[in-house]
Structures are given as C-alpha cells and as structure tokens.
TrEMBL record:
It comes from Arthrobacter horti. PANTHER family: FERROCHELATASE, FERROCHELATASE, MITOCHONDRIAL. This is Coproporphyrin III ferrochelatase. NCBIfam families: PRK00035.2-1 (NF000689). It is an enzyme of class 4 (lyase).
Amino acid sequence: MSTALDTALETLSISTALNEVTEAGRLDPAEYDAILLASFGGPEGQDDVIPFLRNVTRGRGIPDERLEEVSHHYRAFGGVSPINAQNRELKAALEGELAARGIALPVYWGNRNWDPFIPETLQKMYDDGHRRVLMLTTSAYTCYSSCRQYREDIGIALTETGLDGKLQVDKVRQYFDHPGFVLPFVEGTLEGLQKVRQALDAEDGSRDSEIRVLFATHSIPTRDAEAAGRGEGEPREFEGGSAYVAQHLANARAIMAAVAPAVEWDLVYQSRSGAPHVPWLEPDINDHLEAIAPQGVKGAVIVPLGFVSDHMEVAWDLDTEALETCGELGIEAVRVPTPGTHPTFVAGLVDLICERTVEHHIAERPHVTDLGPWYDVVPAGDCRNFRGDKPVIAEAGVTLGTTHD
C-alpha cells in the first residue's frame, strides 16, 4: 500500500501559481495574537438535542414537535454529536503543531450552535488581552453556510458583545483544494478502493468496472449553490453553475487522477433538509446507489469529500443510512475517513494560518485544482444570504459590512 500511496501522491498535481482573481483578492500578512477555531457545534446529551435544534433553526418558527421528529439521528447516538469531541481533538492537534513550529498563538474554540458559543469565546479572547484574531473554520468549500454565515456570526457577535471596533477578526481563505485537506482523501480513497477490491476477491483490479467511487457532500438549496462564487467582480463561470459544485468536482477529478483514473466516480449529495418544495442539489446518495446497482455496480467507495470530520452527517447519513442501502442492494461498500486530525491536515491548517501572519510567514499558496487558491477578500455579494441581510466581519475589524475571508 505504501508504494501505491507514494505513487498516487507523486501523481497529484500541486501548483503554487495564483490566478488573477486570487492575486487581486490577496491580503498582506498581519500580526495576529490569537486563533479562533470556529465550528458548527452539536449536542452532548439527550437533554441538549431540542435546545440545539432550536439554535440551528432559529428564526424559522419550527415547533418543538417538528424538531423532535427530525432528532432521531441524534437520539440514536445517545443525543451526542461527535463534532464537539472532534473539535477538542483538532484544537489540541493545532496547539501541538503550532508549538512544534515555535508559533506562540493561543487557540480558542467557538461554535455557531452550541457551547462554547462564538460570542462568549470572543469576549474571553478580548478579556485575555487579544485584539487581532485570525479565524479558522471547519468548513472548506464556498457557499453561504460554509463561508458567509461564519462571517455573519462574527459580525453579530461583535455587535452583541460591544466589541465591534475593539476586537478585529479576520478569516483564512476557503481551503477546499489545499493539499493538506486533499491528501488525506487521496490516501483514504486508495485504501478504500483496495478494501473493496479485496471484498470482491479482485485485488488485481480486474473487477474495477464493477466499482464506483462516490464523492459525498452536504446538499444545499439550489439557490444557495448558484450564489456561491457570484460576488461582484468575480469574472469566472463555474462548472455546474456554482463554485460549490465546481470545487467538489475539481477535487474529485484530482483525487481520481492520482488514485485510479480508470475507475468511474460520481458526485452525490446527502443530508437534505427543509421544505420538500424547495429544490436542493441532487442526486441523493441513496437514490444514486439504487440507480447504479442495476448497472452492475458491486462495490462502492464512499468518500465524504465535503466534510472535515466524522460528525453526525457522516455518522448517520453515510455510516448508517448509506451503508444500509448498500447492504440491501448487495453492494460491498467502504466509507473513507475524513481528514479529522490527520497530521497532513493539521499541518495544512497551520500553513493556512502562516499565509496570513508576518511571523513564520508562508508566501506560497499550494492548491491541487485550477480553481484555487481561493482569495482572502471575498467579493461583495458572494454567497448571498437570501434569509435577510446581517452584519459580517469587516475590513480592519472596524466597520461592519465588508466581506473579508
């Protein structure tokens, strides 16, 4: 396996060239005094589930009875989402990597929907004497919920805490095609493919025509997808009509070119929610499995390409529902790990931090697709919020409304 992995990693094309959009949206390095690890958050017990779901759906007027109906995947795991424990592990891994490089930046952790909440974390950072913070999120791709909403969270938190103009918060770029994020998927896809071949008793690849690699990511409303990468001054047209879709497709192609160019693959979606009449990205992974099984597919490698860690959407929608679907269809299936705390991923996150800092600065911005590297400064209007305008973190952390990554 090590020889095959070495070959795959050597095959992966990594560039440091900047496109015109990235060059124009690049910020000079600055002197930051702390790091904020921002994430979605999740319940840590049965009593937390409904309050957590209230936070997730705030402002939509959804009654608790309906929330209880959709809480079953959390209930099945004792009301505990894996995400908080994984973020604790990631925070510790980041602290270890920073210390190993001699980088004296403390790491704080704040969540969008559960304790520790972002406003309280920002207040703690300010009380501890920090004044310029660099935010790293656990979302790699470009869309409203992965990018703009985090900037809104910070803008709202600075307003609510009275820290606007006192605490500056900037955000690292979206890192969907940074090698630190992609390389663990290359490794996992290769290992998953080998396991499926073994299960089909065809380690030589003789039955690869019966194997399909499915790159899975979170479905989002079609309208949100179409708004991704559509900011003012963004001249590019994106495959699938969306930066969100195009980024996933580009990553999948890069991974398969390195791992198994002859094996067929598809981009599929999961975790759809919301009103049935609202269009979301398709195909759903379970529907797609049912569609390809009659085509002679006997093995599936499920790659959670859209996810940083094995949180609830992975544990339930993939490890429970999708693998059950595979079992019912007679498909041998393996789910590939997410980057989690893979050393390559953790090192890549610290590299992203160093791209923006004066001390320990890294000037090169490696990327494995032609779409990257993504810009530091998000064009105005990018990843539009169709639910109503909200303040977002601003340039220099002074005036709300500008759109810095």
